[in-house]
Every structure is written in structure tokens, then in C-alpha cells.
Amino acid sequence: MLTTRQGIRPLNAGDLGAFLDLTARDPVVNVFAEYRARTTNLEPRWLGGEIWGRWDGGDLVAACHVGANLVPIEAGEDDARAFGERARDRVRTVSTLVGKQPAVRPLWETIGDTWGTPREERWEQPHLEQQLQSLVDPDPFVRRTTRADMEILYPACVAMYTEEVGISPETGGGRDLYRARVLQLISRGWSFARIEDGEVVFKAEVACATPTAAQVQGVWVPEHRRGEGLAARGMAAVCDIIRNDIAPRVSLYVNDWNAPARRAYERAGFLETARFSTIMF
């Protein structure tokens, strides 16, 4: 049996095949990790951090993404605690700890007393996948955004982020970086919106995608237009576009207390497939 700290080392390009085999155990839940691996080839300079692997008898049994986000991957309780003990030795550089709840909880229990008080803990976040036919018709006015939409779209992105995360993405001089991220999503064809009379009334983005799955983020309707069904019809349209052009399976995760969003996703054909937790600093 492995003891904590045993068998853990940073992965590199030579480990890519083994890592993709690991993420393939649950390719929808692991879409972020697989996307990061495919786009960086596990090179630290492109990762902006590391991915730690835990090995047993030559087999990669679990991993942990260590960058802006700390994400346990296919980690059981013992794996999570082992990654936590390794993380305790580091100065905290991550802003978010996120992943499946059964791994996040022991990981946080191991490192929490050394990493300081988090800004927020969200323990109950249903991970959803569109598995049923939508109960509503896709919104025909939802489309991919273009660079010409940027000045209309950007304020909506800031409003969504601020409402969801609790701080503005422009805090601390982050405006240029966040604008660049929004433009990047537009350029990839991963940004979608319904725009009426110069106002975004629904928007969503693909956060990451692999040949198997895409994860949606940033779903938002302005407060004065909520309750009209824009989110459900908009998500039905976004899922159709994603399935046709990006990936065959669509997922997201949502806060348990966000009842209106959960109803909208249910109407768009989403079912819970796992439970996530997020700790934000």
C-alpha cells in the first residue's frame, strides 16, 4: 500500500498517454484536466504550473492539477490526502480549489489549516450533463458572438463574473487580462449570446473542450429579463451548437442554491451526474 507522499511526482510530456488514459475514466467530469493536458502537452511553461501524478506499481492512479486552480483528478480519499500533504509544503498560489466533492473534502481537510481562511466555500454544486431531450425549443436568436460584439458583450461578462464570483474580474488591474480572455473565447467560437437592441439578454461560453466533451460556463441573463425562459431556451440552443461543431457531450456545474438556474438547466435536458465543491481565495 502507498503511504502519503509516496509515488507522487510532476508529470511531463512523456506521461501524456498515461494521463489521458486516467482522464478517460470519466471524460465529462475530467474535461478541464484533459483539455489542459492536450493544449499544453503537460509542459510546465504552458501549464503555468504542474500536474502531479500518483503512481502505484508503474500505473498512474490519480493526479492533481496545480496552477491557478487546484483540481484533484480521479483521486480517492487517500490520493487526495497525499496531494494535500504535498501542497502543504508550498506557498499557496492557487485561487480556487475545485473538483468532485469526495476528493475536495479530504484535500481541504489536509491543507486548510496552512492556507488561510478562504473567501468562500461552496460545497454543494451539482455537476450536470445534457442527457435528455430539451423540454423547450432552442432560441433561434442565440448565435456565436464576433469581435464586433465586444463592446456590448464585455460589460455583460463583467456583470456575470462579479455576480457569480463575488468580485469584479477587473479588480487589481485585471481588466486587460479579462478582456483578452473574452476575445479569446470569441475567436475560438466558444462565446454565444442573444443580443436585442444593443443589449445582451442571454450569454454563455465554453470554458474548455476535448474531442469527447465541452464544459459550459458564464451562463447569464440580466436581472430585469429573468423569468422569461431565456436561459432554458438559450442553453438548448448553445447545446445544439456545441454538439454540432465542438463536442458530442455538454456539461456544467451550478450552485445548489441557485434554484432558477437549476430549473432552466433541467428544462434544457440536464441531469446531475456528480457533485462538485469549490473553495475560493
From TrEMBL:
Secretion signal span: none
GO molecular function: acyltransferase activity, transferring groups other than amino-acyl groups
Pfam families recorded: Acetyltransf_1, DUF4081
Residue ranges annotated for the N-acetyltransferase domain, each copy included: 140-281
InterPro entries: Acyl_CoA_acyltransferase, DUF4081, GNAT_dom, UCP21603_acetyltransf
The organism's place on the tree of life at top rank: Bacteria
Protein name: N-acetyltransferase domain-containing protein
Record organism: Nocardioides albertanoniae
Lineage: Bacteria, Bacillati, Actinomycetota, Actinomycetes, Propionibacteriales
